[in-house]
Amino acid sequence: MGIFSFVKDNIKKSEAAVVIQNILEMGLNMGLVTEDPAMKANQIISNAWDEKSHLLSGEYSKRPNKYSFAAFSLSLELDKTNVDDYEFTGIQMALGQLINYIHNDKTSLSYSDIDIELMEKAINTFVAKAEEFESSNDPLLKELNSALDKGMKTEADSLNPKYFKNSEKVYHSYEAWYEDYKKGAGQTNSSLKTKNDLNLIDLMDDSGLKKAYKDLIDPIKLGRYFGETFDPSEMKVG
To answer: Residue 221 and residue 128: Cα distance in Å, rounded?
Structure first.
């Protein structure tokens, strides 16, 4: 291996590790991650490189970009993590958040054949482990799952619409309304702030939010209310 290739390998690994670290820091704020995000991210990347360097180094094709590299590495970590391990939920959250981000990525970042292949593997692993998690009868997992469901669904129907009506701003799209909703939530709950284009709310069921948008609910007020009532500590166990 030439010195140039070695340096490029380390640059690519560092870029992917930063992507994972940023997401794990969100999990740390929620109590879903207990290890140092930077150390855990580097460990995940190192393990993935040891296992699948032929896919990640560009040995047989183009090098993957940092997002598919990170997602595939997270999927390898998730695949070997038992659903009854406490860290499982944190890894699952991180991979789900990253898959969602990539799916909605509007940047000019290109995705080659190897990126698509790695993403398909990551998604397949995420779905398989999610199904395994759902089928588990472990009471601890049931409690965790219940807490996640509570935190990841906003039902506008349960709120007093009069309090949230009459937004002074006119919204011409749900996307613009949704961005202000996230801003409002971040104002009252630091764990719901957007960081490096990543936000925990993007993992949540937004069916209630779409109804709130149609009902002309003020997104800032609604977001602030959700931030006030969303308690990350409820996801902690033990």
So the answer is: 38
